[in-house]
Amino acid sequence: MSLEAVAQVCNSSRSEELMNQLKIPSEFREVIRRSWQRQDPSLYGRFDLAFDTKCQKIKLLEYNADTPTSLYESSILQWLWLEDCGQQGKFSSSQFDQYNSLHEQLIREFQSLNLSNLHLACVKDYPEDFATVRYLQLCALEAGIPTNFVFVEDIGFDEDGDWFDLENNLIKNIFKLYPWEDLMREDLATGKPKIPRLILENKVTFIEPIWKAILSNKGILAIFWELFENHAVYGEYLLESYNEASFSLEMEYLTRFKPHVRKPLFGREGQNIEIIVPNQTTPLSQREGDYGEEGYIIQEYVELCQYQGFNLIMGSWMVGEEPCGMSLRGDRSFITGNSAIFIPHAILNSDD
Fold first, then answer.
1. pLDDT of 81-116, one tens digit each?
2. Distance (Å, rounded) from C-alpha 215 to C-alpha 217?
3. Do the strands 44-51 and 58-64 form a parallel or antiparallel pair, or are they unpaired?
4. Alpha helices of 190-319 — where are they, by DSSP H?
């Protein structure tokens, strides 16, 4: 469904209209289309899902397609927890399993990229981002790829716009745990954007590719609903969603009569999200933050599964185009934020 939606945004007669809805700068639209058309490879992503305890209802909350974290916890730490439980006699290792092949799939996906070298980057003073990038560096090394780490703030460029690290090594391939919308905005602020040339001339291969800027945008949820509301398969998993800037009677009905969620297009970690109940003077829940100037979507509200005072969401991990793991996060708030706890899982074997 996600890939079909990207194809609509990039290739259809409505491409400019849909790019406008997503607030993608005009200077980057053609390079996004080209990146998609030549199928620049993607490494990984995480779908966030609401679910009931019997999994009779699963709804897509959003798709973290560009900068998903909690990868190290999902891949390594929860598997070590499962092994520790077996060693401590809490249950036998044959009794339980775990849906988790993230580590192996990441190594295989890195191998398929055929990279001669790889820089990996994140911003300073964010320990979770640093741990995620260092873990991915380990996976790349296991895949046989020589690597270098560099902080985003330490990347420099010459008069031609080519990128270099602090040791003056030319950056040819880079995994950057840094949102595309921020990278585009900062590139535009220089007065002469350099990233489009780097991509179009194959000077730098970015992971995630720039076409992922479409899927990491919360506005894609409204496009999902528009395209696939009545789809025989996809529609079952979607929440009613609209771009706030585009008036419709359906959106007006949702906002006037039903609990709904207001999300910024470029939000992170639950910031600037509001859960609104009609006829209540204050939101049911909200988080402050630095987002929202770019616009909002309105999404149907769905209650999260609750357990021991925590509201739970399920992360469904993709590596390449293969699902290969799940994780759970819980927050005391109705809005899952950066302080949510990570919850490992175990699956009871069907013959026990």
1. 999 998 888 877 678 899 999 999 999 999 999 999
2. 5
3. antiparallel
4. 195-200, 212-215, 220-228, 249-257
Which residues contact residue 5 at a Cβ distance below 8 angstroms, ignoring those fewer than 6 apart?
A: 214, 215, 220, 223, 224, 227, 228
Q: Measure the CA–CA gap between 36 and 18, rounded to whole angstroms.
A: 15
The answer to whether the pTM exceeds 0.85 is yes
pLDDT tens-digit map of 275-320? 999 887 666 656 666 666 889 999 999 999 999 999 999 999 999 9
Inter-CA distances, 263 with 183, 197, 208, 242, 337, Å: 21, 32, 23, 10, 13
Per residue in 234-270, is it b (16+ CB within 10 Å) or e — as a string?
beebbbbbbbbeeeeeebeebbeeebbbbbbbbbbbb
Amino acid at the residue 241 = S
Q: Residue 261's closest CA among 251, 289, 316, 49?
A: 251
Which residue in 350, 343, 327 sits closest to 95, CA to CA? 350
Residue type present at position 313 = I
